[in-house]
Amino acid sequence: MAERGVHLDHATLARWVVKYSPQLAPQAKRRKSKPSGPWRMDETYIKVKGQWMYFYCAVDGCGKTLDFMLSEHRDEAAATDFFARAVENNGWPDKVVIDESGANLAGLQNMNILLLLHGWFWLIEVLQAKYRNNMIEQDHRFNNSSPLQNNCVQR
After folding, report:
1. In this protein, which residues make up the domain named DDE (predicted)?
2. 50 and 102, same structural domain?
3. Closest by alpha carbon to 83, among 55, 44, 111, 123?
4. How many structural domains compose the chain?
């Protein structure tokens, strides 16, 4: 805006975000590409505004972030909420790779029970591997290339 000679206060930009983001969100959701490959899900403990929170994150086979969530708790209810939200925004995965967290396993089992209750017989395959999920941690490094992205086609 400054290049065009328009001087704005940061509060004006914040108001624009509040006003126009609900209108842009449905269009962005329609144009979003489908996830490829198995999902990888992990959570970590981070400090947000001085309070410790659990940061849940899921990426697809190419390393693209599918969804994330902050939670005060690391339990079955938080994991189920995260998976429900991720499925709502990205569709049902065929396979999910998680670490050896019992809460995440319970959350995925709840999602499979939900599938069975709605008459679906394709369940989410759950792969628990302690170190196989380390690829999700590559997203936090300084370099922009992830080992996951080497085998993916840019869309």
Report:
1. 39-141
2. yes
3. 111
4. 2
A 10 A CB-CB count for 37 gives: 18
Residue 152: band (very low, low, confident or very high) from pLDDT cuts 50, 70, 90: low
Segments forming the whole domain that contains residue 14: 2-28
- pTM, entire model: 0.71
Phi first, then psi, for residue 92 (nearest 5°) are -80, 135
In a domain, 22, yes or no: yes
What DSSP line would sit under 84-97, residue for residue? HHHHHHH---SEEE
Report the alpha-carbon angle 106-52-93, nearest 5: 35
Averaged pLDDT for residues 101-121: 89
120 shares a domain with 58: yes
Q: Is residue 155 part of a domain?
A: no
The answer to whether residue 17 is domain-embedded is: yes
The arithmetic mean of pLDDT across residues 102-128, rounded, is: 89
